[in-house]
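Notebook B, p. 112. Complex prediction, attempt 2.
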Amino acid sequence: MLVSTIALNRFGLGARPADPPISDAKRWLLGQFDRFESRPQALAQVPSRTAVATELAEYIEEQRMFGQAGKRRLQQQPASMPTGAMPQQADEKQVDPVKRYLRQNIRQNYLVMSSARLEAALASDSPFVERLVHFWANHFAVSVDKLPVIGLAGLMEFEAIRPHVLGRFSDMLLAVEQHPAILVYLDQAQSIGPNSRAGQFAAMRGGKARGLNENLAREIMELHTLGVRTGYSQADVTEFARALTGWTVGGIGRGPAARLLGNAPAGSFQFADFLHEPGDRTIMGKRYRDAGENQARAVLMDLAASPATARHLATKLARHFAGDEPPSALVDRLSKAYLASNGDLTTVYRALIDAPEPWATQPLKFKTPWEWSVSALRAVGSRDVPAQAAAGLMKQLGQPTWQPGSPAGWDDISASWAAPEALVLRVEAAQRIADRAGSGVDARALAEKLYPGSLSEATRTAIARAESPAEGLALLLVSPEFVRR
Amino acid sequence: MLTRRSFIGATGAAAGVATLGLPGIAFARANTDRRFVFIIQRGAADGLHIVAPTGDPAYAGLRGDFAEDLAQGAKLGSFFTLHPALAETAKLYAGKQALFVHAVASPYRDRSHFDGQNVLETGGSAAYRLRDGWMNRLLGLLPADEAKALALSTTVPMALRGSHEVTSYAQSQLPSATEDLMARVSALYASDQQLHGLWSAAMDTRMKAGDPMQAGGGQNGAAIGALAAKMLSDDGARIAMIETNGWDTHSGQRGRLNVQLRNLDQLLAALKSGLGADWGNTLVAVATEFGRTARPNGTGGTDHGQASAAMLLGGGVRGGAVIADWPGLSSGALYEGRDLKPTTDLDALIAGALAQHYSLEPRRVMATLFPESRGNAIGHPLIVS
């Protein structure tokens, strides 16, 4: 592969037929730091956080009211509905119409946002930075199989990831951990300090035991910053969880907390002092004074600055750009750049571009379904895809947008994606994309343009012998060159 | 004995009337129920295996074991035999509703599918010279009631593209990838260790699950034919294009064409039965971008060639005949020593059939649909007036 081909496909999201040729690959990549738009046109139609959260709040309220109206149903429904799975299909007929309507709205928000994400990827002139947005969104994964997350997942990417993708990791970290999507997804919104005013009140009433939830604290340490088994203990997690108490969301919480928050705007980050566990905390040997909201914030800043975090992030970046087995020299290089710049991400990306490992001429990665779909649609010059069709495509290929099913996000190794049936599904999808593109695309010319000087003879021959333009295009899209980067 | 440069009419009648003028062209019929369906065979269908010239002295020697398939086929007069998978089509022929035209070709004389299909669909004299398709230009010649066209595919194929409005329709649940594409992917992955392993495993699983890519019994064709008939009935479209794939039989031609033709046969049968009485006003044309080599290759298939066979079907078709200015299969008669030589102009055939079907002036049809052609529309009666 030419360096320009590597820049377009491994660093970027795949070449588009109308793009001008790249003369200086590194400069093209660096130039994207200036070109990148945090809020591109494609995201203009995305509903606001207030609108999404208000609908969600109405849904939850409707859920509560409906639950009270029918005791039998209340007993059947798990009390933890807001953080549970979608209601069962079998209940569909019994579900109250208001609730069904609201759920459709929530689902619609998801479709609008996932389609905007794809559109931004197809339209982007800074595809390297766009890829990094997807990388970080997966690093801070939330999953829409929890109902309240359905409408919020996209917002988190647009509001917390995009504005900081070229900034400091610590800023992105803070924006994410204070976003309603993650606060709800990782159960932080309901975490109550046992000795907080709310905790004491609940204990006095002898009601349902509500208290500390460690989920967010653990995932921040394990997944977002330090990395698993890097020296923190269970005691550190618990202490961090205590420090985090009080971090919650306005408008969509439940129980006494929600009522005490009063008129906080729906979906806004709130620090609720009455939930916060009072006292200093000791985490990984360091003492954090009780400073309310800022206690957990100080922990986050220290976590962001940790060498373990630098290594964790460097490893993931190296795996993404230089192969499933990240070269240790590259990990060292990126890790050093991170620490030397106090976690300035652009400095890390520069180190990546300057390193030799990501420029290996042989393909280093098997594309994930998302990467493959975006590159295929870019290759055929597609600018927009009907939202339902796009969602269907990602689901069929096994990577529904913002639904990795776990806070660990999607795997970034070939073994997770290069499977027999997955390949067949990709061929079927390629045929649909090619059929949709129509005979206006000449796959023979496109192939030479996408892989100048490196198109294999097998692929060239297969395309040339295809029995129709659409079949030729489908073959290009599933060729060994195209399924890898 | 058949001679070159003579029309062969299996019924014996066609040859004599080849030069007769076209009746009834002056008055456009008030009838607005006429329908036209164009079925494209993408991939270059082997006309010699579909309407086989079993009476040609060179046929048996040239075609080898391919000839065995035709032993059970319906006789189309003394010279041609229809492939036995086209059983329903043979009934149409017997009922004088199917007409075959042989040694026919578009003006394209090279061997690229892409370019050949572009010529076939645009109606130009060479690839990429025209930007719209002949079916779209046809719409401009028809009254508004009849100029309603539909493509049975996700996108509008080249033949239907142009300034006149055309709709397209495809069932949301698209069929799985065609067997042909699957086979080509197998070949493409052959030298890639990882992909070859994965792909072979997937194909093995599918085989075991008894889930063949394409139904061998013609179910796909029947479904498409029924769908097309539905879309063409009542207030629906009056003109439709149906795309069929899988005709590029470089290997395993006998088995593959058997499946292909059964699907085509079922498609035509379902179209006829679905249209009911409207079949009487329907013209169906079946054509491919070019034919295949006269001699089988070393892998049980045939390679890209020149002339092939086309079909006209419908209640109004003057069927029961094979029209051909037969060039012969002797080695000296073959185009470049390998392909059936084109002797009938596909453009002229299409223009002639449509002029007669719609009672339009042939010259105007030819000039509109095939503006770069210097030939005339076929005047031989193709449609019952």
